[in-house]
Amino acid sequence: MAKKNQFETDVIHAGYKPSDHLGSLVPPIFQTSSYTFPSAEEGERRFAGESNGHIYSRLGNPTVTALEERMAVLEEGGAALAFASGMGAVSATLFHLTNTGDHILCSDGIYGCTFGLLQLMKKKYDIDHDLIVMDSEETVRAAIRDNTKVIYIETPINPTMKLVDLEMIVSIAKERGIRVVVDNTFCSPYLQRPLSLGCDYVVHSATKYIGGHGDVVAGIVVGADKEEIAEMGVTMRKDIGGIMSPLDAWLLLRGLKTLAVRLDRHCENAEKIADKLKAHPKVGRMLYPGDPDFPQYELAKRQMKLPGGMISFEVKGSKEDAQAILNRVKLIRLAVSLGDTETLIQHPATMTHSVVPEGEREKMGISDTLIRMSVGLEAWEDIWEDLKQALDGI
């Protein structure tokens, strides 16, 4: 048996052999739409699925394949599919696993566009869903219906940072033959690998920590079962479209090489900023899995390698006070997204989760004074100096 490499090695080397590409140290960008066949017979074999050669880049591309193979290794899965956006990966996975009349059980508090997708699935395709607090076996079991086909989880949840105990969910789901899908965007495979805990699918907005530099929009799904991923590739990607471009795949392969060292710094900076925020008189509730007072601190230590680079906090005051802080920052960038080298700050209630009705936002714990921050790679002292002057000014 071949020696298994450490994560920090696989993130650089997995899925690519220079000897297969004229010795090129870096994976080439195969910027082509079509591929020539050496013979008519070989073309027939490829279309019949009897040969693995390439046909057309909507079906597959060598640069994209290199990324997929690397992500499958990093997430400890069977295979991966790359999509043009994170929502492309989420929608393909949920539509692949459900049919009209089915039910999806979701963790309370999910990304605004995922919430919008669930509403669309209910309205147009009669695929129902429930959003629940998954804090106990009893709660989860009580919410499962006979037609529940998927349990969909964000952990940590965006933007409230709540965690879901994945081992608990898997134990319940396996009893009922329900598939477990985890949005692992906030952690990346460096901090959390849900498939190793028994989950069936992992989805990523690869725009975030996977890319890490704010220059690509992309999504990835990794499945435990290689054959199921292959089927999804035919139905949800080939026929509907939405494959990632070769350039985007190349940018992600480049970004992945520094994932481990970047996240170490993200987490180190976030811990320091969280300590400062917790002591500031203008800050009320602070939501950060690495805080010993965080309600699920012990679960975070068990389930995640490190607490992550995301912090949410509530301002003592009004919505206008929260917005004033965003308007006062100078070094910190007022922008959505996360996982970039730059520190980013935003107001979920009026930005990423504005599509969610106010009543639902309140149930999720998304108040008008909640601010979400993606802590970047700058010197933490500079990040705090900017954030402190913004807080002091309200």
Using brief descriptors, characterize the structure shown:
single chain, 394 residues, Aspartate Aminotransferase, domain 2, Aspartate Aminotransferase, domain 1, 2 domains, 15 helices, 15% strand, L-Met_gamma_lys, homocysteine desulfhydrase activity
Topology overview:
Layout: H1 7-13, H2 40-47, H3 62-74, E1 79-83, H4 86-97, E2 103-107, H5 112-125, E3 128-132, H6 137-143, E4 148-154, H7 166-176, E5 179-183, H8 188-191, E6 201-205, E7 219-223, H9 226-238, H10 246-256, H11 259-279, E8 283-287, H12 297-303, E9 310-315, H13 319-328, E10 333-334, E11 344-346, H14 358-364, E12 370-374, H15 380-392
Parallel strand pairs: 2-3, 2-4, 4-5, 5-6, 10-11
Antiparallel strand pairs: 1-7, 6-7, 8-9, 9-12, 11-12
Helix pairs in contact: 1-3, 3-10, 4-5, 4-9, 11-15, 13-15
Describe the structure.
It is globular and about 75 Å long. Helices cover about 40% and strands about 15% of the residues. The chain has 2 domains: about 5-30 and about 60-255, Type I PLP-dependent aspartate aminotransferase-like (Major domain) (Aspartate Aminotransferase, domain 2, 3-Layer(aba) Sandwich); about 260-390, Aspartate Aminotransferase, domain 1 (Alpha-Beta Complex), CATH 3.90.1150. About 45% of the residues are buried. Helix 1 packs antiparallel against helix 3 and helix 4 (about 85-95) runs parallel beside helix 5. The chain is built from 15 helices and 12 strands. The strands form 2 sheets. The chain has a 7-stranded mixed beta sheet with strand order 1-7-6-5-4-2-3, sandwiched between helices. The protein starts with 6 loop residues before the first helix and ends with a helix. The chain is an alpha/beta fold. The protein has helices at about 5-15, 40-45, 60-75, 85-95, 110-125, 135-145, 165-175, 190, 225-240, 245-255, 260-280, 295-305, 320-330, 360-365, 380-390; strands at about 80-85, 105, 130, 150-155, 180-185, 200-205, 220-225, 285, 310-315, 335, 345, 370-375.
